[in-house]
Amino acid sequence: MKTYVNGFLFSPDGSKVVLIRKNRPKWQVGRLNGVGGHVEPDETPAAAMRREFEEETGLDVGTWAWRLSLVSDSWVVQFFAAFSHSYNLVRATTDEEVGIYDVDALYALPVIPNLWWLVPLCRDTDVLPSTIFDTSTVGGD
């Protein structure tokens, strides 16, 4: 099973979020997504989240809170959230554009469709972090 991480860095008040405009994979091209990537062998998801975010934005965020997992029969994505005054220091360090966006305006942006609910859910500190969605059964019959 492949394991990925995806993180949302929020402004301290949660009104802004850092997202990346994807150039790959093909189904994500031109859309905004959280920052993340593969978990390396012998790496924890939290360590991968910290590494991936710094590699793609130039900003080392030391503390990421795990919020939820999306699981299928061949992959799992661990979602994380962080809040920092340094959110506005991000910059693109790869060929993918990094930007800061209003959380309440995501519906009007070209985002990966599940971000419309994932970003607010990850921003909500009252959500129990043990929530897991099994996408292998969604829509199946």
User: Beta-strand level of the residues, as a percent range?
Assistant: 25-35%
Output mean pLDDT.
91
Structural class: alpha/beta
CATH fold node name: Nucleoside Triphosphate Pyrophosphohydrolase
Largest sheet: 5 strands, mixed
How are the SSEs placed, and which strands pair?
Layout lengths: L1 E9 L5 E6 L10 E2 L1 E4 L6 H13 L7 E7 L3 E9 L14 E5 L12 H9 L8 E3 L7
Parallel strand pairs: 1-6, 5-8
Antiparallel strand pairs: 1-4, 2-3, 2-7, 5-6
Describe the structure.
The chain is an alpha/beta fold and 141 residues long. The protein has one domain (2-134): Nucleoside Triphosphate Pyrophosphohydrolase, CATH 3.90.79.10. 16% of the residues lie in helices and 32% in strands. The chain contains two helices and eight strands; from the N terminus they run ββββαβββαβ. It has helices at 45-57, 115-123; strands at 2-10, 16-21, 32-33, 35-38, 65-71, 75-83, 98-102, 132-134. The strands form two sheets. The chain has a five-stranded mixed β-sheet with strand order 4-1-6-5-8, sandwiched between helices. Strands 3-2-7 form a three-stranded antiparallel β-sheet, with no helix packed on it. β5 and β6 form a beta hairpin. It is globular, with a radius of gyration of 14 Å. The two termini are 23 Å apart. The mean pLDDT is 91.
